[in-house]
Amino acid sequence: MARTVAFDQDQAIEKALDVFWRKGYNGTSMRDLTDAMQINSSSLYNTLGDKHQLFVQCIKHYTRKRRILLEERAKVFDSPQKALESFIHDVADVVVKDAQGCFAIKTAFEVSPDNKGIQALLKDDNDFTHTFLSKLIREAVEQGVMKKDTDPDLLADYIISTYTGWYELYILHKDPAKIKQLAAFMVYHLLR
Q1: Residue 103 has what pLDDT?
Q2: Are 84 and 163 contained in the same domain?
Q3: Among residues 31, 71, 73, 118, which is most buried (max CB within 10 A)?
Q4: Which domain holds residue 94?
Q5: 10-residue block means of pLDDT along the chain (192 residues)?
Q6: Could you tell me if 159 and 183 are in contact, meaning their C-beta atoms sit under 8 angstroms apart?
Q7: Three-state secondary-structure class, residue 27
Q8: Within this chain, do residues 53 and 121 fall inside the same structural domain, yes or no?
Q9: Do the Cβ atoms of 43 and 5 come closer than 8 Å?
């Protein structure tokens, strides 16, 4: 008679995500995962799959949580300009507070170049963020709070590529003030 699964899969995925985030995909062993998740390897394989399948589930879990957070956060503001300002400052806060860096960015450099499936998941996440930002920019242009000749798609790409670089700066310099200044600079020059 088969035993019932005696663990919370979402919680287990969160724990596995933390291990992958800290150690990277290649640096993480199955033992690291089962220890962190507090399950045996047969439970892992029978419910969540092998290391790669679990990693894919972690990416999906991470990006799904980010999407929900972005959408909920944008609803708080009464203007697209305020939502964009908040987004930029929120990213700076995350860069400074999260010593591990962005899981999606780390994964893009470590695993994505060699794995088209993971690359597609990360591209989908990037496309979501791009669409989210370009929509806010387009609304700000329509409301007259941003210049009429602003290209929403180009500006969304610029914002994403710029804050991606903040992670590297913070890893190298560990200077929160520098990241906060860069965010303020971006807000001042793009949204005023």
Answers
A1: 86
A2: yes
A3: 118
A4: 77-190
A5: 60 93 92 89 82 94 93 91 94 85 84 86 96 96 93 97 92 93 95 71
A6: no
A7: helix
A8: no
A9: yes
Q: Which residue type, as a one-letter code, is found at position 82?
A: K
Both tokens of 100, joined, read 């591990």
Domain co-membership, 45 together with 101 = no
Q: Is there a single domain that holds both residue 54 and residue 114?
A: no
Q: Coil, strand or helix: which one is 124? A: helix
pLDDT at 2: 46
Assigned domain for 69 exists:
no
100 assigned to some structural domain: yes
144: left (phi over 0), alpha (psi -120 to 50) or beta: left
Question: Cα 74 to the chain's mean position, in Å?
Answer: 16
Q: What is the total count of domains within the chain?
A: 2
- 129 and 86 inside one domain: yes
Q: What is the dihedral of CA 102, 121, 129, 95, to 10 degrees?
A: 0
Both tokens of 130, joined, read: 């791009």
Q: Which helix (H) or strand (E) holds 19?
A: helix 9-27
